[in-house]
Design goal:
2 helices, mainly beta, 48% strand, 4-stranded antiparallel sheet, 5-stranded antiparallel sheet, signal
Amino acid sequence: MYVRMIMKWFNIGILLSVCTAAQAEDAPDRRSLADNMIARAIHHDGRLWLLTDSGDLSSITDNASERVEESVPGPVLDICQSNRKLYALSCDTKACGNWRLNQQEQGQWRLLTSVASNGEQILALACDASSNQVLSAKRLIDLRGSRVSVTHLSEAISAPYVAASLVTPTAIFLGLNSGEWGGGLRRITRATGKVTNVEHLDGGLCSGPLSSDCDPVTGLAVIPWKPTCVAASIGIVHFAARGRIVEVCGQQVTTLLVKAYGDDDMWRFKDQDQDQDQDQDNEEKEPFPSVAFFGLNARGQSLLAVGIDGLYEINEDAPAKVFTLPEFREVDGVYLNDADPDTILVLTSINRRRSVSGAAPLFVRRGE
């Protein structure tokens, strides 16, 4: 019985890989495995743009059956979208002495500005309606046209992989994914550069709804019914699966949704005013293994999350709904589902670099 339980947990990690492998057997001329290490996926101007963690950028036109390599000078570090425009941050040379901000325009990439890298690690290129934010390990660089404004961070941030970034009027949130070594959530105040480690522990290691040492944060979204608060998805498959959706309001972190993997047990703790004893009871009841979540987005007044067992729709005053993961089609080594008019799912194997897991779906909102 014990062996069967261990094998069940292990199979969670390879579940999606097994499902897609059957589809891949007849696929000719598949690209290398590196093409499946997709770090970012954005839908813009009728195309799905895919960036690997090695800096290769490609795109797939809607309903097309081939993938096109994009020619951006130097390795691409990150991409983002705002105001119906697509941006790519790249290195000027292999040594990356300068970062170049490029804009996609009528099939071409136009250089907007260049910034000295100072040898720092890039964490994210984050866009909002008014500017592009280049966040490095030590600086927050605000780019508005040709104007460059630099704010030094209160402390350096070291992160092997930034899975998600979110820009709000006052802060930039970073979801860090270090796999079995956690990751957590960081908030950078835009005006001052103050770095805050956002977490909630209930005593011991890995306790509470959000632990930097144990919880990889894989997705971020503003909560539609509570626009001053942010939701974060947590997911890891390391032999067994573990995850939840949490709500962050200032420094207060509570569990929004957690579900036992393999059955219908689901809890949702949305009442911020629940007493401490009840909160502790809820934490003690959290199931294991639980559904790992690998993406989060807002649509209308709902939150949409992608878990290893399905798609979740979370609303303010109704139980969460779960929908079966759809079929994926193969395009030059990339597996995606683009049948939904609002969202696209893309499988990535990038989590294998940090945990014993198979492919996981990235959640992409269709652009305008």
